[in-house]
Amino acid sequence: MTAAILSAPRARHLATQGLARSFGGLKATDGVSLEVRPGELHALIGPNGAGKTTLINLLSGELRADAGAVRLDGVDISAATVQQRVALGLLRSYQVTSVFDGYTVLENACLAALRKRRRRLSPWRPLAACQDVVDAARQALAACRLQDVADSEVGSLAYGQRRQLEIAMALAGEPGILLLDEPMAGMSAAESAAVIDLLRSLKGRYTIVLVEHDMNAVFALADRISVLVYGRLIATGDAEAIRNHPDVRRAYLGDDADA
Q: By CB count within 10 A, which of 55, 69, 131, 227 is most buried?
């Protein structure tokens, strides 16, 4: 089974205007204006400390901006809470796995589907009675090639499968936009290849913002790439444009543009 079984919500348009956030005297995000087009896989790259995760946190609502705006389909959602943004279809994964080891793979996906529907697990109503939730969870697991381990406890999964489960949990929440923060961090080459294949299968069906240090993955997947350095956006373009951009080569890729 593949991602085609999922009925994805319409891919959404995401934009920021002059987005800024400081921590003390450090400008972690410094006036970032970014556009992510509907159905686009847009990668954010930059050296450690560039402000990538801060920007993702601002998009997801886990941080509030000091200035600027976040817009979803042209509507300002800067004041929206995390839960309100989830309800609007803005979902994310994290650098560090955030799954629940005490539950099965299916139960983890069901929890994400319940969150989207603003419902809670009840001891008086078994999960099997929530058929719409279970169906959404199973479809998300199938899209992420996890249907065969649906009834396994999360603690038994390989590391790469745990990262794939995080993506499945986001899919179970019926996103219009996926914010993926280093989904391949700590993976082996084989595990990374599996996630690259998974993300390729989701391209065009969801709007995806991908923060990733694996440049092979970024250049293989991204429709466009934006480069952050010290909280500032210094370039946006396709893979070829970013490879050849002199400021990017000097600041991030490590080349001497004048050599």
A: 55
